[in-house]
From TrEMBL:
S-adenosyl-L-methionine binds at N29, L31, G56, E77, D102, N122. Pfam families: RrnaAD (PF00398). Belongs to the class I-like SAM-binding methyltransferase superfamily. rRNA adenine N(6)-methyltransferase family. RsmA subfamily. It comes from the Bacteria. It comes from Dethiobacter alkaliphilus AHT 1. Residues 36-208 form the Ribosomal RNA adenine methylase transferase N-terminal domain. It catalyses: adenosine(1518)/adenosine(1519) in 16S rRNA + 4 S-adenosyl-L-methionine = N(6)-dimethyladenosine(1518)/N(6)-dimethyladenosine(1519) in 16S rRNA + 4 S-adenosyl-L-homocysteine + 4 H(+). This is Ribosomal RNA small subunit methyltransferase A. One of its GO terms (molecular function) is 16S rRNA (adenine(1518)-N(6)/adenine(1519)-N(6))-dimethyltransferase activity. It is found in: Cytoplasm. Specifically dimethylates two adjacent adenosines (A1518 and A1519) in the loop of a conserved hairpin near the 3'-end of 16S rRNA in the 30S particle. May play a critical role in biogenesis of 30S subunits. The keyword Glycoprotein does not apply.
Amino acid sequence: PVSKLSSPGHVSRLLEQHGVKLKKKWGQNFLVDENILKKIISAADVQKSDRILEIGPGIGSLTQKLAENASRVLTVEIDTRLIPVLRETLAEYDNVEIIHGDAMDFDPAPVCEEGPVKLVANLPYNVATPLLYRWLKDSRNCFSRLVCMVQKEVAERIVAKPGSKAYGTLSVICNYAARCEIAFDVPRTVFFPRPDVSSAVVQLIPYHVPAEDVADDAFFFKVVEAVFAQRRKTLLNTLNAAFPLTKEQLTAVCSAVEIDLSRRGETLTLQEFAKLSRVLYNKVG
Ligand code: SAM
């Protein structure tokens, strides 16, 4: 069914009735387009048996569609003022649980005890990057799929290729942990109110076994973070500053695996980061 929440007029009255003035800092731009909602449900391949975790339900536009198509939906909203709105817009669904809280403090592990869940969300711009980064690092086995609307620029960072400006820790960690793609772009016009930037929906399918053998997960993340913290320096200088190895030791270790230390770290592929992590871990891990 077409929801009333896809009418900007209805949304604006609903917010007024509840005395809610939207806050920019929480990225409160709500989807008012049935077609985009359907496309998100289809990108997430939502099935009747699915358990879904949603972050930032807002007024519940996406939540309604998730509730109609999945088995259970757990949704986490930070804004106290939106909880009564959600109770109203989600009143007819008995398979939705609304949690009032900050997604950054939310541990997905207990939710996944019964098996992996799907994360489906129109992520608030302020938490998209740290949340994806943290969950792919620490909790990726929790998710069978992550389908998220993010700012276009974040989506481009996720799928960026080595050497490009957008390539960074997020690109390497996402592609280490999951098969990543941009499902589709989303124009500003499908939101109320309209945001300043365009968005895209990304689809991440975590690997059971990560894409590369890195010897040790935590150490690998440390290497990637150290390299991008100094992305324009040569690998030799970066690694020398970050790890207790002399330039001579580093040169010996890296020439054995054919990594040229005069390169800038930002040009390394995922495979090269993995190789680097393995040899360094053997020395100092
Ligand atoms: N899902 C809705 C939709 O598609 O129309 C709303 C998406 S809106 C872009 C982001 C929502 O996330 C807002 O409702 C905002 O209050 C909420 N939010 C912002 N920061 C949050 C956080 N740290 N934890 C949980 N929710 C947050």
